[in-house]
Amino acid sequence: MMQQRAGSQIGYGLIPVLALAAFQALSGQQQPDALPNPISAPGSPWGFDGFVVDTPAEGGWNSMAKDAHYAELTKQFASGVYGSALVDAHRVGVEVQDSTQLLALTREIQTAVPDPAMELADYLAEPVVADAAMCVRFSIKFDSLRSTSLAPSVLFARGISCARPGSADLVITLKYVLRGPAVDLVPGADKVADSFLASLRFAPSDPSLLRRARVAAGQTPEESMQLLLPQAERGDGEAALLLGDMYLYGRGVPRDYRAARKWFEIAARDGRAEALFNLGAIYDKALGVERDPAQAIAWFTLAADQRDADAQLNLALFFIKGDGVPKNLAAAEQWLQRSANNGNTRARRILAEGKYKQL
Predict the structure, then answer these.
(1) pTM for the complete prediction?
(2) Residues spanned by the domain of 54
(3) Are residues 182 and 225 in the same domain?
(4) Does 224 share its domain with 169?
(5) What's the distance, CA 76 to chain centroid?
(6) Contact of 141 with 118, CB cutoff 8 Å
(7) Which among 106, 109, 18, 110 is positioned nearest to 64, based on CA atoms?
(8) Is 135 helix (H, G, I), strand (E, B) or coil?
């Protein structure tokens, strides 16, 4: 079940603010290429390039998208309210020099109305410091323009935008959004939103050092180790992930599964999906440990929460075989569909052939 995984990539492309997709999700208009992925471990850390965010600490959320720079989670509340928790890291094209500039950029982005059926009703923002970063905390409200509606829709969002330390043209935004006829009737929403917005923290990574370490890994692995070790010991999940990869695959160093597991566990604290997957593979394949399907499933499930297609495929195989869990073809098919939807060609082939139904 283990597949060799490529290390994560440092650096950000130009990522537009995906406001329209978020509004579609909040309206119940699911994107055709997005398959809801239930979050099994609410409140768990998710790793992105250079920062970490905790998912909302309540049940019922689904992941609609996740990559190194963006995540979209949605939830439908019993009151008919739709919720969305968004993470978006993008380049703004300028170096953010001070809070006044960040306030202006945040207002420009957040007050844009992507839904022509709504209008801006209120916007408040103030500069704050979060995890030693220059940030802006904001709240925004949009009202429905459809005055004839019996229950006019309201959209209310709270968020925080921060200039990433060391990369002042990168702005990371977390936003907790509620849309519906009465968004103030969602119990506990303020507490969940506060926890989500306060969870943003920046990794102590040095992108240039990590790039040098990657280059050195294939040519002078001793230099790569010297670069990575101090960073990983300080809790840098990216450096720990690279060290784990080196030991797991014997890249420039003798294979050492125990050392690999140690560094992957450190990277897993930052929610690095690659580390979560590799820990699952270690327990599945008994690499330096006794085989433990329950541990493997637990780690694969955390990676699958982040829409990791390989982890989702592996969970399907556990359910098909009844390995560590009761055999459950319905659950297997759900994981196969999620994996296929996230681009896994093997999952697509298994679904198309249908042989798993006869096992």
Answers:
(1) 0.86
(2) 19-202
(3) no
(4) no
(5) 19
(6) no
(7) 18
(8) strand
Number of domains comprising the chain:
2
Instruction: Please identify, among 152, 179, 202, the residue that sits at the C-terminal boundary of a domain.
Output: 202
Tell me, yes or no, whether 243 and 138 share the same domain.
no
Same domain, 100 and 128: yes
Dihedral-angle region of residue 43 (phi above 0 means left; psi in -120 to 50 means alpha; beta otherwise): left
Return per-residue pLDDT of the chain as tens, 359 residues: 444 443 332 222 222 233 333 444 444 344 445 678 899 999 999 999 989 999 999 999 999 999 999 999 999 998 889 999 999 999 998 899 999 999 999 999 999 987 888 899 999 999 999 988 999 999 999 998 866 555 568 999 999 999 998 888 899 999 999 998 878 778 889 999 999 999 999 988 777 788 888 887 777 888 888 889 988 998 889 999 999 999 999 988 899 999 999 999 999 999 999 999 999 999 999 999 999 999 999 999 999 999 999 999 999 999 999 999 999 999 999 999 999 999 999 999 999 999 888 87
Residue 38 and residue 71 share a domain: yes
Q: Kindly provide the b/e burial profile for residues 140-151, where b requires at least 16 CB atoms within 10 angstroms of the residue's own CB.
A: bebbbeeeeeee
CB within 8 Å of 181: residues ≥ 6 apart: 80, 81, 151, 152, 153, 154
Residues 195, 49 share a domain: yes
CATH number of residue 102's parent domain: 3.40.1000.10
Instruction: Identify whether residues 330 and 242 lie together within a single domain.
Output: yes
Beta bridge partners of 70: 88
DSSP 189-247: HHHHHHHHHHT-EE----HHHHHHHHHHHTT-HHHHHHHHHHHHHTT-HHHHHHHHHHH
Residue 18 host element (H or E): none
Distance CA 38, CA 303 (A): 12
Q: Which helix (H) or strand (E) holds 291?
A: none
Q: How far apart are alpha carbons 319 and 103 in whole angstroms?
A: 50
| Same domain as 217, residue 182 | no
